[in-house]
């Protein structure tokens, strides 16, 4: 992700923006070819990736991982262990790159920040009454401001799916814009804002495309598929629709927005398929942790095992690595 001062500025409040004008804009987007999206995703499963590209892809995927723990039972010790793993995924092999970020609940941001100082690994925090997002806006803003004050580099907010599905696009837009403002740091710069659409609750691919555009219009730095608490989560067709949205949004506005599939991504094969999809849909400009992340609690070990197999010809079993 670009450094601290490059988060997109909060968009100026547009008083003329009405729900009707947003509805007209979002419903005027071309419809998604659902059959085509599924066929494209299914086609990726049959592709083979050659050894050199695979080795590069695995290292890139490691650099894109937002190593996540979002459990009620999370403790400072667990977050410190996760931070150590993100800094040095394989303590026996210094050539393994570090992960992009550690993603935690807001009350554990301080622990993660202290554990990761100077490492180059970011701290992301879910906020805005994650995962349901059912709280008054003031509560969501407080949640965000606290995480930013504690040192979060990135805020992963959830949209109000109820408002979206009820057609109240203005409410969703204004809430995102307000959270974006709350990402600003008093001393300058801002935390980057990832907007979670929770695509598993949006019913249709057309809605995924509309929610993607709405979030980008309201100032999202990234659009993210899922909380990891709702199934289906980061499916390939949904990720495809979101990659098309960021590609088209950049063509229309000149602004590049990142994409983060999250939830249910567990194997190196899943990660490599995602990278192929990024390359062939949004394009190589997105093949960078600044623009593409993979949110996952248990992907890193499979990436490490596949990496070891490529470099040594043998697998280390999962017991060789620390838990992720
Ligand atoms: O943002 C990341 C997700 O919460 C992680 O989901 P996961 O546990 O299915 O990998």
Automatic annotation (TrEMBL):
Pathway: Carbohydrate degradation; 2-deoxy-D-ribose 1-phosphate degradation; D-glyceraldehyde 3-phosphate and acetaldehyde from 2-deoxy-alpha-D-ribose 1-phosphate: step 2/2
InterPro entries recorded: Aldolase_TIM, DeoC, DeoC/FbaB/LacD_aldolase
Catalysed reaction, written as an equation: 2-deoxy-D-ribose 5-phosphate = D-glyceraldehyde 3-phosphate + acetaldehyde
One example GO MF annotation: deoxyribose-phosphate aldolase activity
Domain of life: Bacteria
Pfam family, one: DeoC
UniProt KW keywords: Lyase, Schiff base
GO BP annotations listed: carbohydrate catabolic process; deoxyribonucleotide catabolic process
EC number(s) reported in the record: 4.1.2.4
GO cellular component: cytoplasm
Protein family according to the UniProt entry: Belongs to the DeoC/FbaB aldolase family. DeoC type 2 subfamily.
Name of the protein in question: Deoxyribose-phosphate aldolase
